[in-house]
From TrEMBL:
<dbReference type="GO" id="GO:0005634">
    <property type="term" value="C:nucleus"/>
</dbReference>
<keyword id="KW-0130">Cell adhesion</keyword>
<dbReference type="GO" id="GO:0007507">
    <property type="term" value="P:heart development"/>
</dbReference>
<dbReference type="GO" id="GO:0045110">
    <property type="term" value="P:intermediate filament bundle assembly"/>
</dbReference>
<dbReference type="GO" id="GO:0072659">
    <property type="term" value="P:protein localization to plasma membrane"/>
</dbReference>
<dbReference type="InterPro" id="IPR011989">
    <property type="entry name" value="ARM-like"/>
</dbReference>
<protein>
    <submittedName>
        <fullName>PKP2 protein</fullName>
    </submittedName>
</protein>
<dbReference type="InterPro" id="IPR016024">
    <property type="entry name" value="ARM-type_fold"/>
</dbReference>
<feature type="compositionally biased region" description="Basic and acidic residues">
    <location>
        <begin position="94"/>
        <end position="107"/>
    </location>
</feature>
<dbReference type="InterPro" id="IPR000225">
    <property type="entry name" value="Armadillo"/>
</dbReference>
<feature type="region of interest" description="Disordered">
    <location>
        <begin position="79"/>
        <end position="109"/>
    </location>
</feature>
<dbReference type="GO" id="GO:0005912">
    <property type="term" value="C:adherens junction"/>
</dbReference>
<keyword id="KW-0965">Cell junction</keyword>
<dbReference type="GO" id="GO:0098609">
    <property type="term" value="P:cell-cell adhesion"/>
</dbReference>
<dbReference type="GO" id="GO:0014704">
    <property type="term" value="C:intercalated disc"/>
</dbReference>
<dbReference type="GO" id="GO:0005737">
    <property type="term" value="C:cytoplasm"/>
</dbReference>
<dbReference type="GO" id="GO:0002934">
    <property type="term" value="P:desmosome organization"/>
</dbReference>
Amino acid sequence: RNMSSAGPEGRKKMRECNGLIDSLVYYIQGAIADHEPNDKATENCVCILHNLSYQLEIELPESYAQSIYMQRRNISSDDKTPGCFGSRSRKVKEKQQDTPLPEEKSNPRGIESLWHSTLIRIYLSLIAKSTRNYTQEASLGALQNLTAGTGPMPFAVARTVVQKANGLPSIRTMLHVSHPTVKKTAVSLLRNLSRNTSLQSDIAREVLPDLVSILPESALESDIVCETTVSICYTLFNLTQSSSHNARLLLSANGLPKIITISMNDSNMFSKASRAASVLLYSLWSHTDLHSAYKK
């Protein structure tokens, strides 16, 4: 577990170690099957896999990168429409989100297991069944790592979490735990998931009211609450930016007074949260059909 957090070279060596990842996955599967998701060894295994999934998209060996990202390069060369961020126009991004991964192997080995649906379901199972905070946080964190990029792999993992494995109810439960870092990691995962336009209606229906409910009513009392608030605001921004329906859902959940209060926080320490809330308010105002409801 300590070695897995030793940096890129350490991660690379451990990912390449024959049988290591397979053994970790095998142990966790056994613990879940035996109804023992809370033992220390399971926590250690999940924390190792969490660390090995960090920056996975960037650090993938060339052989995997070629097979997974060949389709992505074809898309980029087909559509050179300039956007605000160079070749990463909205149209190209949307096409990338629809690009499927190559067929999943039924019996993955080694590094392939790190993004396979089997391990994604294991993480979701541990989030639901374990009461150990470090195990919950590492499972959420691994999914956060796997959904952090902009290529087809993160979007495929996001679709598996939301649509194929029905993971949102388990993640929603983590929004209401008392442990602040578990809650923060759950929100960060939702922020990544919410970037996928094809999943936004599902996410809004399942967790938008919960996100609003955990926004602070008044002053932010710590850095971790501030970071969580920033992530909530940007998640709500993603969910409401292109959807008047989702913006109305935020309104009916009494989110507007909270967001206004956060945006008016003039403390330098919490300026990131104030800025994120202001960006969200500006976006909400773009739904002109809701202006009269906002004023009320």
